[in-house]
Amino acid sequence: MTYPENFLYTKEHEWVLVEGDTGTIGITFHAQKELGDIVYVDLPKVGATAEKGKTIGSVESVKAVSDIFSPVSGEVTAVNDLLTTSPEKLNEDPHGAAWMFKVRLAMPEETKELMKAADYAGYAGDE
Amino acid sequence: MVDFGGWDMPVQYSGLIDEHRTVRTAVGLFDVSHMGEIEVRGPEALRLVNYVATNDASLLKIGQAQYSGLLYEHGGFVDDILVHKVADDHYFLCVNASNQDKDYEHIAAHNTFDCSVENAGARYAQIAVQGPRGLDTLQKLTEVELAPIAYYHFKDGDVSGTPARIARTGYTGEDGFEIYLAPEQAPRIWDDLMEAGQEFGIKPAGLGARNTLRLEAKMALYGHEIGASITPWEADLAWIVKVKKGEFIGRNALIEAKEGGLTRKLIGFEMLGRGIGRDGYEVHVDGIPAGWVTSGGPAPTLNKNIGLCYLPLKQAEIGRTIHIMVRNQPVEAVTVSTPFYKRPK
């Protein structure tokens, strides 16, 4: 698996794409593969406050529930409603159409602690 | 792979939903070698089996199997088991993997009938061939005529040249067979079955699909619907208790429990609100904690989120609005009749 070079990654298998003062957040290919068939996604509301490392939502597969931890802090400015009706998109396109929510970055320097694509690929250890 | 009571078990192969639907529509192959086996032999084998198990093994003919329970004196479950009558002096029990040693010690401790009780799990692998094309798949590998074997009956015969016990049983709510055979032959027979089933679209299926399939069919899972603190009355398993057959372990407690009035009961539910009720979640009735979910999750055949829960007897009636506490939020559900899925005849 090749992970997008322009994303940053967490140890909990979320990704964030930083464009200006906005971070777009999702879960990685590895995360969706480990979860299996995703059937339900619980997203934050627009206007909610995301805190780095804190639970902001959850993803459920047939088998299990997994918390989503926000990789960055800030106000949630958008959520991807597609996932409410088609949670399986997370299995199909986790790095693209199945982004989860956007945050206006309160502390852009937080992203320095996140992993780059090559490091994450080694960490995730996909075959 | 996950660790399951010391066994490395695949949770899924091609994907849980795909495997689940394959079993419902074609045929799936499960490696369930972790299941335990206990052999009871001797002239008084029937008396021992009928003393430790709740169902009436005297009703069995040779070649017939029966779902039953092992209970403690206080009426709670040691385990749920399948009793196969091999001969008048030989019963073959299939038990849960994680309970095998406990079950063996329990039965051996009550063996005042001079039977031989063998903890035989290491001598058997088990492969389950489940689904509407299970018979067609297995038939290609055996001379034993499978069609005449009725549900919950078995025959001994060769599969791919290896002696096997072929039982028309399963844990999926679908037609199919469970095959017991020597472990050293199991990998080869697995491969032969995969090849034989290719034309029917066979796929290997894991623990994940096994769980969603059995939940749709409302089959109990030890540690969830049943356990040491739960009686067969509560678990909606009165049909495996034959009080009239005579003395057995747990009988007195069950009679007392019934006379004293039951307090809770297992009942099915369907989620109405957005959210999935899962194992262990609290159930509220009229805003008050009333019970817990024993098993819950998406039902791939039904495209619904379903589950089983314990509720106070008075509230355990079909059609009642309940709330499942999903991460501290009440989500609406309704109690429904079970099984959730019944295979078309």
Structure in words:
The complex is a heterodimer of chains A (127) and B (345). Chain A contains four helices and nine strands. With 127 residues, chain A is an alpha+beta fold. Chain A has one domain (7-106): RNA polymerase II/Efflux pump adaptor protein, barrel-sandwich hybrid domain (OB fold (Dihydrolipoamide Acetyltransferase, E2P)), CATH 2.40.50.100. In chain A, the strands form two sheets. A six-stranded antiparallel β-sheet of chain A has the order 1-2-3-9-8-5. The relative contact order of chain A is 0.27. Helix content of chain B is 19%, strand content 34%. The mean pLDDT of chain B is 96. In chain B, the strands form four sheets. A six-stranded mixed β-sheet of chain B has the order 10-11-12-9-3-13. Chain B has a six-stranded antiparallel β-barrel with strand order 14-17-16-15-18-19. A five-stranded antiparallel β-sheet of chain B has the order 5-6-7-4-8, covered by helices on one side. The radius of gyration of chain B is 20 Å and the shape is globular. The longest helix of chain B is centred in the middle third of the chain and has 11 residues, at 186-196. Chain B is built from seven helices and 19 strands. By secondary structure, chain B is of the alpha+beta class. Classes of the chains: A alpha+beta (127), B alpha+beta (345).
Entry keywords:
heterodimer; A: 127 residues; alpha+beta; OB fold (Dihydrolipoamide Acetyltransferase, E2P); 6-stranded antiparallel β-sheet; 3-stranded antiparallel β-sheet; 4 helices; 9 strands; globular; B: alpha+beta; Elongation Factor Tu (Ef-tu), domain 3; 2 domains; 34% strand
Topology:
The complex is a heterodimer of chains A (127) and B (345).
Chain A: E1 7-9, E2 14-19, E3 22-27, H1 29-35, E4 38-42, E5 49-50, E6 55-61, E7 65-69, E8 74-79, H2 82-85, H3 89-92, E9 101-105, H4 117-124
Antiparallel strand pairs in A: 1-2, 2-3, 3-9, 4-6, 5-8, 6-7, 8-9
Chain B: E1 2-4, E2 7-9, H1 16-25, E3 28-31, E4 36-41, H2 45-52, E5 64-71, E6 77-87, E7 90-95, H3 100-109, E8 116-119, E9 125-130, H4 134-139, E10 154-159, E11 162-167, E12 176-181, H5 186-196, E13 203-204, H6 207-216, H7 251-260, E14 264-271, E15 282-285, E16 288-299, E17 304-312, E18 321-326, E19 329-336
Parallel strand pairs in B: 3-13
Antiparallel strand pairs in B: 1-2, 3-9, 4-7, 4-8, 5-6, 6-7, 9-12, 10-11, 11-12, 14-17, 14-19, 15-16, 15-18, 16-17, 18-19
Helix pairs in contact in B: 1-6
